[in-house]
Amino acid sequence: RMVAAVLAGLSLLSLLTCSYLAWGSRRGGAGDAPGNLLGEEPAAGAPRSQPHIIFILADDQGFRDVGYHGSEIRTPTLDKLAAEGVKLENYYVQPMCTPSRSQLITGKYQIHTGLQHSIIRPTQPNCLPLDNVTLPQKLKEVGYSTHMVGKWHLGFYRRECMPTQRGFDSFFGSLLGSGDYYTHFKCDSPRICGYDLYENNNAAWDHDNGIYSTQMYTQKVQQILASHNPRKPIFLYIAYQAVHSPLQAPGRYFEHYRSINNINRRRYAAMLACLDEAINNVTLALRKYGYYENSIIIYSSDNGGQPMAGGSNWPLRGSKGTYWEGGIRAIGFVHSPLLKNKGSVCKELVHITDWFPTLITLAEGQIDEDIQLDGYDVWETISEGRHSPRVDILHNIDPIYTKAKNGSWAAGYGIWNTAIQSAIRVNHWKLLTGNPGYSDWVPPQAFSNTGPNRWHNERISWSAGKTVWLFNITADPYERVDLSARHPEVVKQLLRRLSQFNKTAVPVRYPPKDPRSNPKLNGGVWGPWFKEDEKKKKSEKSKGASKQKKMKKKKKAN
Protein backbone atom coordinates (compact mmCIF):
# COMPACT_ATOMS: atom_id res chain seq x y z
CA ARG A 1 0.00 0.00 0.00
CA MET A 2 2.84 2.38 0.91
CA VAL A 3 4.54 1.69 -2.47
CA ALA A 4 1.25 2.35 -4.29
CA ALA A 5 0.78 5.62 -2.41
CA VAL A 6 4.33 6.77 -3.22
CA LEU A 7 3.86 5.93 -6.93
CA ALA A 8 0.53 7.76 -6.98
CA GLY A 9 2.18 10.78 -5.40
CA LEU A 10 4.99 10.77 -7.94
CA SER A 11 2.47 10.48 -10.79
CA LEU A 12 0.52 13.44 -9.47
CA LEU A 13 3.70 15.48 -9.03
CA SER A 14 4.80 14.58 -12.57
CA LEU A 15 1.40 15.57 -13.97
CA LEU A 16 1.44 18.92 -12.17
CA THR A 17 5.01 19.61 -13.29
CA CYS A 18 4.22 18.81 -16.92
CA SER A 19 1.10 20.95 -16.79
CA TYR A 20 3.07 23.86 -15.30
CA LEU A 21 5.77 23.61 -17.92
CA ALA A 22 3.24 23.40 -20.73
CA TRP A 23 1.43 26.46 -19.34
CA GLY A 24 4.70 28.31 -18.87
CA SER A 25 5.81 27.63 -22.41
CA ARG A 26 2.78 29.50 -23.74
CA ARG A 27 3.71 32.65 -21.82
CA GLY A 28 7.12 33.29 -23.40
CA GLY A 29 7.97 36.80 -24.67
CA ALA A 30 7.94 37.76 -28.36
CA GLY A 31 11.67 37.19 -28.63
CA ASP A 32 11.71 33.92 -26.70
CA ALA A 33 11.66 30.50 -28.28
CA PRO A 34 8.42 28.66 -27.58
CA GLY A 35 8.85 26.21 -24.72
CA ASN A 36 12.25 27.67 -23.79
CA LEU A 37 11.45 27.89 -20.08
CA LEU A 38 14.53 27.87 -17.80
CA GLY A 39 16.70 27.84 -20.95
CA GLU A 40 15.89 24.20 -21.71
CA GLU A 41 15.61 23.14 -25.37
CA PRO A 42 13.18 20.40 -26.45
CA ALA A 43 14.60 17.37 -28.21
CA ALA A 44 15.79 18.05 -31.76
CA GLY A 45 13.40 16.90 -34.44
CA ALA A 46 10.34 17.14 -32.17
CA PRO A 47 8.26 20.24 -33.03
CA ARG A 48 6.78 21.80 -29.91
CA SER A 49 3.76 22.80 -31.95
CA GLN A 50 2.92 23.43 -35.58
CA PRO A 51 6.18 24.82 -37.02
CA HIS A 52 6.48 28.11 -38.83
CA ILE A 53 7.18 27.32 -42.50
CA ILE A 54 9.31 29.68 -44.58
CA PHE A 55 9.73 28.60 -48.20
CA ILE A 56 12.24 30.68 -50.19
CA LEU A 57 12.23 30.15 -53.95
CA ALA A 58 15.01 31.74 -56.01
CA ASP A 59 14.54 32.31 -59.72
CA ASP A 60 16.98 30.91 -62.32
CA GLN A 61 19.83 30.30 -59.85
CA GLY A 62 22.28 27.91 -61.50
CA PHE A 63 23.48 24.71 -59.84
CA ARG A 64 27.04 26.05 -59.46
CA ASP A 65 25.93 29.49 -58.29
CA VAL A 66 26.31 29.01 -54.56
CA GLY A 67 29.50 29.11 -52.52
CA TYR A 68 29.34 25.52 -51.33
CA HIS A 69 29.20 24.31 -54.97
CA GLY A 70 32.49 26.06 -55.75
CA SER A 71 31.22 29.33 -57.20
CA GLU A 72 33.37 32.45 -57.37
CA ILE A 73 30.25 34.34 -56.26
CA ARG A 74 30.16 34.77 -52.49
CA THR A 75 27.03 33.52 -50.74
CA PRO A 76 27.96 33.47 -47.02
CA THR A 77 24.35 33.36 -45.80
CA LEU A 78 23.32 30.45 -48.01
CA ASP A 79 26.55 28.61 -47.19
CA LYS A 80 26.01 28.99 -43.43
CA LEU A 81 22.32 28.05 -43.47
CA ALA A 82 23.03 24.99 -45.63
CA ALA A 83 26.05 23.91 -43.55
CA GLU A 84 23.99 24.05 -40.35
CA GLY A 85 21.01 22.32 -41.98
CA VAL A 86 20.67 19.54 -44.56
CA LYS A 87 21.95 20.01 -48.12
CA LEU A 88 19.80 18.32 -50.75
CA GLU A 89 22.24 16.98 -53.34
CA ASN A 90 19.85 14.80 -55.33
CA TYR A 91 17.08 17.38 -55.58
CA TYR A 92 15.00 18.03 -58.70
CA VAL A 93 12.68 20.75 -59.94
CA GLN A 94 11.25 21.55 -63.38
CA PRO A 95 13.17 23.33 -66.16
CA MET A 96 11.03 26.51 -66.16
CA CYS A 97 9.12 28.88 -63.88
CA THR A 98 5.42 27.94 -64.10
CA PRO A 99 5.95 24.15 -64.03
CA SER A 100 8.05 24.26 -60.85
CA ARG A 101 5.67 26.63 -59.08
CA SER A 102 2.58 24.63 -60.03
CA GLN A 103 4.13 21.40 -58.78
CA LEU A 104 5.23 23.01 -55.51
CA ILE A 105 1.79 24.37 -54.76
CA THR A 106 -0.23 21.27 -55.80
CA GLY A 107 2.09 18.31 -55.23
CA LYS A 108 1.20 17.11 -58.75
CA TYR A 109 3.13 16.57 -61.96
CA GLN A 110 2.37 18.88 -64.88
CA ILE A 111 0.59 16.11 -66.77
CA HIS A 112 -2.00 16.07 -63.97
CA THR A 113 -2.75 19.82 -64.05
CA GLY A 114 -2.70 20.40 -67.82
CA LEU A 115 0.35 22.70 -67.60
CA GLN A 116 2.78 20.32 -69.30
CA HIS A 117 3.67 22.69 -72.15
CA SER A 118 5.92 25.73 -71.70
CA ILE A 119 4.83 28.46 -69.22
CA ILE A 120 1.72 30.59 -68.71
CA ARG A 121 2.12 33.67 -70.93
CA PRO A 122 0.82 37.09 -69.78
CA THR A 123 -1.73 37.29 -72.59
CA GLN A 124 -3.11 33.76 -72.25
CA PRO A 125 -6.50 33.12 -70.61
CA ASN A 126 -4.93 30.42 -68.47
CA CYS A 127 -4.04 29.71 -64.86
CA LEU A 128 -3.48 26.88 -62.41
CA PRO A 129 -6.79 24.95 -62.73
CA LEU A 130 -9.23 26.05 -60.05
CA ASP A 131 -10.17 22.49 -59.09
CA ASN A 132 -6.66 21.88 -57.70
CA VAL A 133 -6.31 22.23 -53.93
CA THR A 134 -3.25 24.31 -53.05
CA LEU A 135 -0.66 24.09 -50.28
CA PRO A 136 -1.73 27.36 -48.58
CA GLN A 137 -5.39 26.25 -48.65
CA LYS A 138 -4.49 23.04 -46.82
CA LEU A 139 -2.39 24.95 -44.28
CA LYS A 140 -5.20 27.42 -43.64
CA GLU A 141 -7.45 24.48 -42.73
CA VAL A 142 -5.22 23.77 -39.72
CA GLY A 143 -4.90 27.33 -38.49
CA TYR A 144 -1.97 28.76 -40.42
CA SER A 145 -1.73 32.38 -41.51
CA THR A 146 -0.56 32.26 -45.12
CA HIS A 147 1.36 35.03 -46.86
CA MET A 148 3.04 35.27 -50.23
CA VAL A 149 5.69 37.79 -51.23
CA GLY A 150 7.21 37.81 -54.72
CA LYS A 151 6.58 36.22 -58.11
CA TRP A 152 3.32 34.32 -58.75
CA HIS A 153 3.47 33.20 -62.42
CA LEU A 154 0.53 30.81 -62.14
CA GLY A 155 -1.95 32.85 -64.17
CA PHE A 156 -4.29 35.77 -63.46
CA TYR A 157 -6.73 36.13 -66.33
CA ARG A 158 -9.67 35.98 -63.93
CA ARG A 159 -9.91 37.04 -60.28
CA GLU A 160 -10.36 33.47 -59.08
CA CYS A 161 -6.80 32.75 -60.26
CA MET A 162 -5.18 35.39 -58.04
CA PRO A 163 -2.99 34.32 -55.07
CA THR A 164 -5.51 35.62 -52.52
CA GLN A 165 -8.14 33.36 -54.08
CA ARG A 166 -5.83 30.34 -54.02
CA GLY A 167 -5.21 30.22 -50.27
CA PHE A 168 -3.03 33.19 -49.35
CA ASP A 169 -4.26 35.67 -46.72
CA SER A 170 -2.07 38.33 -48.29
CA PHE A 171 -0.05 38.80 -51.47
CA PHE A 172 2.58 41.37 -52.37
CA GLY A 173 4.49 40.90 -55.58
CA SER A 174 4.28 40.36 -59.33
CA LEU A 175 1.90 38.25 -61.39
CA LEU A 176 4.12 37.77 -64.46
CA GLY A 177 7.32 35.81 -65.02
CA SER A 178 9.69 38.77 -65.20
CA GLY A 179 9.87 42.55 -65.27
CA ASP A 180 11.97 45.57 -64.41
CA TYR A 181 13.36 45.32 -60.85
CA TYR A 182 12.84 49.04 -60.19
CA THR A 183 9.86 50.23 -62.24
CA HIS A 184 7.96 46.88 -62.21
CA PHE A 185 6.93 47.34 -65.86
CA LYS A 186 6.85 44.47 -68.30
CA CYS A 187 6.39 44.39 -72.07
CA ASP A 188 5.20 41.09 -73.46
CA SER A 189 5.55 42.37 -77.01
CA PRO A 190 5.81 45.79 -78.68
CA ARG A 191 3.05 48.12 -77.38
CA ILE A 192 1.74 45.41 -75.04
CA CYS A 193 3.21 46.79 -71.82
CA GLY A 194 1.95 47.31 -68.29
CA TYR A 195 2.64 47.73 -64.59
CA ASP A 196 3.08 44.54 -62.55
CA LEU A 197 3.24 45.10 -58.79
CA TYR A 198 0.31 44.02 -56.66
CA GLU A 199 -0.82 44.19 -53.08
CA ASN A 200 -3.54 41.59 -52.63
CA ASN A 201 -5.93 42.19 -55.56
CA ASN A 202 -4.96 45.72 -56.56
CA ALA A 203 -2.06 47.44 -58.26
CA ALA A 204 0.41 48.63 -55.60
CA TRP A 205 1.02 52.13 -56.98
CA ASP A 206 1.71 53.42 -53.45
CA HIS A 207 4.73 51.13 -53.18
CA ASP A 208 6.21 52.27 -56.49
CA ASN A 209 9.17 54.13 -54.97
CA GLY A 210 11.91 52.86 -57.24
CA ILE A 211 13.10 50.32 -54.68
CA TYR A 212 14.96 47.28 -56.02
CA SER A 213 12.54 44.35 -55.83
CA THR A 214 14.80 42.02 -53.81
CA GLN A 215 15.10 44.65 -51.08
CA MET A 216 11.44 45.68 -51.33
CA TYR A 217 10.23 42.10 -50.93
CA THR A 218 12.51 41.60 -47.93
CA GLN A 219 11.12 44.74 -46.25
CA LYS A 220 7.61 43.35 -46.77
CA VAL A 221 8.61 40.04 -45.19
CA GLN A 222 10.02 41.91 -42.17
CA GLN A 223 6.74 43.82 -41.81
CA ILE A 224 4.69 40.60 -41.92
CA LEU A 225 6.87 38.95 -39.27
CA ALA A 226 6.79 42.05 -37.04
CA SER A 227 2.98 42.25 -37.10
CA HIS A 228 2.19 38.53 -36.71
CA ASN A 229 1.95 36.69 -33.38
CA PRO A 230 4.80 34.13 -33.31
CA ARG A 231 2.71 31.84 -31.10
CA LYS A 232 0.44 31.25 -34.09
CA PRO A 233 1.77 29.22 -37.05
CA ILE A 234 2.67 31.08 -40.23
CA PHE A 235 3.38 29.93 -43.76
CA LEU A 236 5.52 32.44 -45.60
CA TYR A 237 6.19 31.81 -49.30
CA ILE A 238 8.94 34.15 -50.51
CA ALA A 239 9.39 33.84 -54.28
CA TYR A 240 12.17 36.28 -55.13
CA GLN A 241 12.43 37.69 -58.63
CA ALA A 242 16.23 37.36 -58.48
CA VAL A 243 18.28 36.21 -60.28
CA HIS A 244 16.04 36.11 -63.36
CA SER A 245 16.72 38.55 -66.20
CA PRO A 246 16.72 41.52 -66.74
CA LEU A 247 20.15 41.66 -65.12
CA GLN A 248 19.88 44.60 -62.70
CA ALA A 249 21.41 45.24 -59.28
CA PRO A 250 22.19 48.21 -56.99
CA GLY A 251 25.68 49.60 -57.59
CA ARG A 252 27.27 48.67 -54.27
CA TYR A 253 26.89 44.95 -54.93
CA PHE A 254 29.32 45.14 -57.85
CA GLU A 255 32.26 45.98 -55.55
CA HIS A 256 33.63 42.44 -55.21
CA TYR A 257 33.05 41.47 -58.85
CA ARG A 258 34.83 44.15 -60.90
CA SER A 259 37.33 41.50 -61.98
CA ILE A 260 34.66 39.46 -63.83
CA ASN A 261 35.07 40.52 -67.46
CA ASN A 262 31.83 39.03 -68.69
CA ILE A 263 29.24 41.78 -68.10
CA ASN A 264 26.31 39.36 -67.75
CA ARG A 265 28.16 37.23 -65.22
CA ARG A 266 29.24 40.37 -63.29
CA ARG A 267 25.66 41.66 -63.09
CA TYR A 268 24.39 38.22 -62.17
CA ALA A 269 26.98 38.01 -59.36
CA ALA A 270 25.84 41.36 -57.97
CA MET A 271 22.21 40.25 -58.06
CA LEU A 272 23.06 37.03 -56.22
CA ALA A 273 25.08 38.93 -53.61
CA CYS A 274 22.04 41.13 -52.96
CA LEU A 275 19.80 38.05 -52.70
CA ASP A 276 22.16 36.42 -50.21
CA GLU A 277 22.08 39.56 -48.04
CA ALA A 278 18.27 39.63 -48.27
CA ILE A 279 18.01 36.06 -46.96
CA ASN A 280 20.30 37.00 -44.08
CA ASN A 281 17.89 39.84 -43.22
CA VAL A 282 14.93 37.44 -43.35
CA THR A 283 16.74 35.05 -40.99
CA LEU A 284 17.56 37.90 -38.60
CA ALA A 285 13.89 38.93 -38.58
CA LEU A 286 12.85 35.35 -37.75
CA ARG A 287 15.18 35.46 -34.73
CA LYS A 288 14.25 38.99 -33.69
CA TYR A 289 10.49 38.40 -33.64
CA GLY A 290 10.57 34.96 -31.98
CA TYR A 291 9.92 32.57 -34.87
CA TYR A 292 13.29 30.95 -35.46
CA GLU A 293 13.39 28.19 -32.82
CA ASN A 294 10.17 26.65 -34.13
CA SER A 295 10.72 27.31 -37.83
CA ILE A 296 11.57 25.30 -40.93
CA ILE A 297 13.36 27.26 -43.65
CA ILE A 298 13.43 25.65 -47.10
CA TYR A 299 15.54 27.12 -49.88
CA SER A 300 15.21 26.10 -53.53
CA SER A 301 15.86 27.36 -57.03
CA ASP A 302 12.97 26.99 -59.46
CA ASN A 303 15.13 25.68 -62.32
CA GLY A 304 18.67 25.67 -63.66
CA GLY A 305 20.64 28.74 -64.64
CA GLN A 306 20.69 30.40 -68.05
CA PRO A 307 24.33 30.80 -69.22
CA MET A 308 23.41 33.54 -71.72
CA ALA A 309 22.07 35.51 -68.74
CA GLY A 310 25.05 34.89 -66.46
CA GLY A 311 24.01 31.64 -64.76
CA SER A 312 26.25 28.58 -64.40
CA ASN A 313 25.29 24.92 -63.98
CA TRP A 314 28.80 23.50 -64.28
CA PRO A 315 29.65 20.64 -64.21
CA LEU A 316 26.11 19.63 -65.17
CA ARG A 317 24.97 19.51 -68.76
CA GLY A 318 22.46 21.90 -70.35
CA SER A 319 20.60 24.89 -68.98
CA LYS A 320 17.25 26.32 -68.00
CA GLY A 321 14.48 25.15 -70.31
CA THR A 322 16.06 21.73 -70.94
CA TYR A 323 15.66 18.27 -69.42
CA TRP A 324 19.40 17.76 -69.08
CA GLU A 325 20.58 17.79 -65.46
CA GLY A 326 21.61 21.46 -65.73
CA GLY A 327 17.98 22.41 -66.29
CA ILE A 328 16.33 20.35 -63.56
CA ARG A 329 18.86 19.52 -60.82
CA ALA A 330 18.65 22.37 -58.36
CA ILE A 331 20.24 24.00 -55.36
CA GLY A 332 18.21 23.10 -52.30
CA PHE A 333 18.57 22.82 -48.54
CA VAL A 334 16.55 22.76 -45.32
CA HIS A 335 17.60 24.76 -42.27
CA SER A 336 15.79 24.25 -38.99
CA PRO A 337 16.40 23.77 -35.25
CA LEU A 338 13.89 20.90 -35.58
CA LEU A 339 16.18 18.78 -37.78
CA LYS A 340 17.68 15.70 -36.17
CA ASN A 341 20.71 15.33 -38.45
CA LYS A 342 21.97 18.91 -38.69
CA GLY A 343 25.06 19.57 -40.76
CA SER A 344 24.45 16.62 -43.09
CA VAL A 345 24.06 15.97 -46.81
CA CYS A 346 21.00 14.18 -48.19
CA LYS A 347 21.72 12.25 -51.38
CA GLU A 348 18.31 10.59 -51.52
CA LEU A 349 15.94 11.40 -54.38
CA VAL A 350 13.75 14.44 -53.63
CA HIS A 351 11.44 16.34 -56.01
CA ILE A 352 9.67 19.68 -55.73
CA THR A 353 6.26 17.91 -55.59
CA ASP A 354 7.36 16.34 -52.28
CA TRP A 355 7.05 19.63 -50.36
CA PHE A 356 3.24 19.54 -50.55
CA PRO A 357 2.67 16.33 -48.51
CA THR A 358 5.79 16.91 -46.38
CA LEU A 359 4.73 20.35 -45.18
CA ILE A 360 1.07 19.44 -44.68
CA THR A 361 2.11 16.48 -42.51
CA LEU A 362 4.49 18.66 -40.47
CA ALA A 363 1.67 21.17 -40.01
CA GLU A 364 -0.54 18.38 -38.60
CA GLY A 365 -2.86 18.67 -41.57
CA GLN A 366 -4.79 16.01 -43.44
CA ILE A 367 -4.36 14.97 -47.07
CA ASP A 368 -7.68 13.97 -48.59
CA GLU A 369 -7.77 10.51 -50.08
CA ASP A 370 -9.31 11.79 -53.31
CA ILE A 371 -6.30 14.09 -53.93
CA GLN A 372 -4.04 11.94 -56.07
CA LEU A 373 -0.61 13.35 -55.31
CA ASP A 374 2.66 12.72 -57.10
CA GLY A 375 4.71 13.90 -54.13
CA TYR A 376 5.90 11.98 -51.06
CA ASP A 377 6.42 12.90 -47.42
CA VAL A 378 10.23 13.12 -47.23
CA TRP A 379 10.70 14.72 -43.79
CA GLU A 380 12.25 11.60 -42.23
CA THR A 381 14.52 11.31 -45.27
CA ILE A 382 15.75 14.87 -44.76
CA SER A 383 15.73 15.11 -40.97
CA GLU A 384 16.83 11.60 -39.99
CA GLY A 385 18.73 10.39 -43.04
CA ARG A 386 16.33 7.57 -43.90
CA HIS A 387 15.81 6.21 -47.42
CA SER A 388 13.53 8.25 -49.64
CA PRO A 389 10.13 6.75 -50.43
CA ARG A 390 10.62 8.12 -53.96
CA VAL A 391 12.13 5.81 -56.58
CA ASP A 392 11.16 7.67 -59.75
CA ILE A 393 10.44 11.14 -61.15
CA LEU A 394 8.43 11.96 -64.23
CA HIS A 395 10.34 15.03 -65.39
CA ASN A 396 7.63 15.66 -67.98
CA ILE A 397 5.74 14.56 -71.08
CA ASP A 398 5.03 17.42 -73.49
CA PRO A 399 2.84 16.17 -76.36
CA ILE A 400 2.87 19.59 -78.05
CA TYR A 401 6.66 19.87 -78.26
CA THR A 402 7.47 17.41 -81.07
CA LYS A 403 10.43 19.11 -82.74
CA ALA A 404 12.50 15.93 -83.06
CA LYS A 405 11.96 15.44 -86.79
CA ASN A 406 13.42 11.94 -86.77
CA GLY A 407 11.38 10.73 -83.82
CA SER A 408 9.12 7.78 -84.45
CA TRP A 409 7.28 4.83 -82.92
CA ALA A 410 9.89 2.57 -84.47
CA ALA A 411 12.68 4.34 -82.59
CA GLY A 412 10.63 3.76 -79.45
CA TYR A 413 10.27 0.02 -80.09
CA GLY A 414 6.57 0.49 -80.84
CA ILE A 415 6.06 1.52 -77.20
CA TRP A 416 6.53 5.29 -77.47
CA ASN A 417 6.71 7.99 -80.15
CA THR A 418 10.20 9.43 -79.66
CA ALA A 419 9.26 12.66 -81.43
CA ILE A 420 7.60 13.68 -78.14
CA GLN A 421 9.76 15.58 -75.69
CA SER A 422 9.80 13.59 -72.46
CA ALA A 423 12.13 12.63 -69.61
CA ILE A 424 11.88 10.17 -66.74
CA ARG A 425 14.09 8.99 -63.88
CA VAL A 426 13.69 5.51 -62.35
CA ASN A 427 16.21 4.61 -59.65
CA HIS A 428 19.65 5.20 -61.20
CA TRP A 429 18.40 5.42 -64.78
CA LYS A 430 17.31 8.49 -66.72
CA LEU A 431 15.70 8.37 -70.15
CA LEU A 432 15.14 11.31 -72.52
CA THR A 433 13.20 11.32 -75.79
CA GLY A 434 12.52 13.90 -78.50
CA ASN A 435 14.52 17.11 -78.39
CA PRO A 436 15.72 17.65 -74.79
CA GLY A 437 17.07 21.14 -75.58
CA TYR A 438 20.43 22.97 -75.52
CA SER A 439 22.93 20.29 -74.53
CA ASP A 440 26.34 21.94 -74.07
CA TRP A 441 28.45 21.84 -70.94
CA VAL A 442 29.39 25.43 -70.12
CA PRO A 443 32.57 25.54 -67.99
CA PRO A 444 33.60 28.57 -65.88
CA GLN A 445 36.14 29.77 -68.47
CA ALA A 446 33.26 30.34 -70.90
CA PHE A 447 32.53 33.49 -68.88
CA SER A 448 36.08 34.87 -69.19
CA ASN A 449 35.26 37.03 -72.23
CA THR A 450 32.42 39.34 -73.16
CA GLY A 451 30.54 36.29 -74.56
CA PRO A 452 29.76 33.80 -73.10
CA ASN A 453 32.11 32.32 -75.68
CA ARG A 454 30.72 29.10 -77.12
CA TRP A 455 34.22 28.09 -78.23
CA HIS A 456 34.87 27.18 -74.61
CA ASN A 457 31.80 24.96 -74.41
CA GLU A 458 32.05 21.17 -74.52
CA ARG A 459 29.84 19.36 -76.98
CA ILE A 460 29.15 15.87 -78.23
CA SER A 461 28.03 15.57 -81.85
CA TRP A 462 25.30 12.94 -81.82
CA SER A 463 24.60 10.79 -84.84
CA ALA A 464 21.89 12.26 -87.07
CA GLY A 465 18.35 11.35 -86.14
CA LYS A 466 18.99 10.50 -82.49
CA THR A 467 15.86 10.82 -80.33
CA VAL A 468 16.54 8.50 -77.35
CA TRP A 469 19.17 8.85 -74.61
CA LEU A 470 19.82 6.70 -71.53
CA PHE A 471 22.13 7.57 -68.62
CA ASN A 472 23.05 6.05 -65.29
CA ILE A 473 22.77 9.31 -63.36
CA THR A 474 24.27 7.90 -60.16
CA ALA A 475 27.45 6.82 -61.95
CA ASP A 476 27.37 9.57 -64.59
CA PRO A 477 25.68 12.70 -63.15
CA TYR A 478 27.14 14.85 -65.94
CA GLU A 479 25.44 12.81 -68.72
CA ARG A 480 28.56 12.13 -70.72
CA VAL A 481 28.03 8.45 -71.62
CA ASP A 482 24.83 7.52 -73.47
CA LEU A 483 23.93 3.88 -72.71
CA SER A 484 20.79 3.53 -74.84
CA ALA A 485 22.45 1.25 -77.42
CA ARG A 486 24.11 -0.87 -74.72
CA HIS A 487 20.94 -1.41 -72.62
CA PRO A 488 17.92 -1.64 -74.95
CA GLU A 489 15.93 -3.62 -72.33
CA VAL A 490 16.28 -0.79 -69.83
CA VAL A 491 15.18 1.67 -72.53
CA LYS A 492 12.07 -0.43 -73.17
CA GLN A 493 11.24 -0.61 -69.45
CA LEU A 494 11.44 3.16 -69.08
CA LEU A 495 9.44 3.73 -72.27
CA ARG A 496 6.70 1.51 -70.83
CA ARG A 497 6.77 3.56 -67.64
CA LEU A 498 6.38 6.73 -69.71
CA SER A 499 3.44 5.16 -71.50
CA GLN A 500 1.81 4.27 -68.16
CA PHE A 501 2.20 7.83 -66.90
CA ASN A 502 0.82 9.21 -70.14
CA LYS A 503 -2.42 7.26 -69.68
CA THR A 504 -3.10 9.37 -66.57
CA ALA A 505 -2.42 12.71 -68.28
CA VAL A 506 -5.10 15.38 -68.58
CA PRO A 507 -5.46 17.52 -71.75
CA VAL A 508 -2.92 20.28 -72.23
CA ARG A 509 -4.04 23.81 -71.31
CA TYR A 510 -2.30 26.22 -73.69
CA PRO A 511 -4.86 28.62 -75.18
CA PRO A 512 -4.08 31.32 -77.77
CA LYS A 513 -3.54 34.87 -76.53
CA ASP A 514 -6.56 37.03 -75.77
CA PRO A 515 -6.48 40.65 -77.07
CA ARG A 516 -8.49 41.72 -73.99
CA SER A 517 -5.39 41.06 -71.89
CA ASN A 518 -3.71 44.27 -73.13
CA PRO A 519 -2.92 46.43 -70.06
CA LYS A 520 -4.08 49.50 -72.01
CA LEU A 521 -7.62 48.17 -71.55
CA ASN A 522 -7.03 47.72 -67.81
CA GLY A 523 -5.70 51.10 -66.66
CA GLY A 524 -2.14 50.32 -67.73
CA VAL A 525 -1.91 47.36 -65.36
CA TRP A 526 -1.41 43.65 -65.97
CA GLY A 527 -4.32 42.00 -64.23
CA PRO A 528 -7.53 39.97 -64.52
CA TRP A 529 -9.43 40.80 -67.68
CA PHE A 530 -11.89 37.93 -68.04
CA LYS A 531 -15.23 38.98 -66.55
CA GLU A 532 -17.54 36.17 -65.52
CA ASP A 533 -20.48 38.59 -65.57
CA GLU A 534 -19.85 39.39 -69.24
CA LYS A 535 -19.93 35.70 -70.09
CA LYS A 536 -23.20 35.27 -68.19
CA LYS A 537 -24.73 38.30 -69.93
CA LYS A 538 -23.71 36.96 -73.33
CA SER A 539 -25.15 33.53 -72.55
CA GLU A 540 -28.33 35.14 -71.21
CA LYS A 541 -28.62 37.29 -74.36
CA SER A 542 -28.09 34.27 -76.59
CA LYS A 543 -30.71 32.33 -74.59
CA GLY A 544 -33.12 35.25 -74.88
CA ALA A 545 -32.53 35.56 -78.61
CA SER A 546 -33.10 31.83 -79.13
CA LYS A 547 -36.36 32.06 -77.13
CA GLN A 548 -37.57 34.95 -79.31
CA LYS A 549 -36.76 32.96 -82.46
CA LYS A 550 -38.73 29.98 -81.16
CA MET A 551 -41.72 32.24 -80.35
CA LYS A 552 -41.66 33.70 -83.86
CA LYS A 553 -41.56 30.23 -85.38
CA LYS A 554 -44.56 29.17 -83.27
CA LYS A 555 -46.53 32.25 -84.39
CA LYS A 556 -45.77 31.50 -88.04
CA ALA A 557 -46.79 27.89 -87.59
CA ASN A 558 -50.03 29.00 -85.94
TrEMBL record:
SUPFAM superfamilies per UniProt: Alkaline phosphatase-like
Region (Disordered): 507-558
InterPro entries (alphabetical): Alkaline_phosphatase_core_sf (IPR017850), ARSB (IPR047115), Sulfatase_CS (IPR024607), Sulfatase_N (IPR000917)
Bias kind Basic residues: ranges: 544-558
Swiss-Prot/TrEMBL keywords: Calcium, Glycoprotein, Hydrolase, Metal-binding, Signal
PROSITE patterns in the cross-refs: SULFATASE_1, SULFATASE_2
Domain Sulfatase N-terminal positions: 51-363
Reported cofactor(s): Ca(2+)
GO terms, molecular function: metal ion binding; sulfuric ester hydrolase activity
Biased composition (Basic and acidic residues): 530-543
Signal peptide bounds: 1-24
Superkingdom of source: Eukaryota
Family: Belongs to the sulfatase family.
The name this protein goes by in its record: ARSJ Arylsulfatase
Protein's organism: Nesospiza acunhae
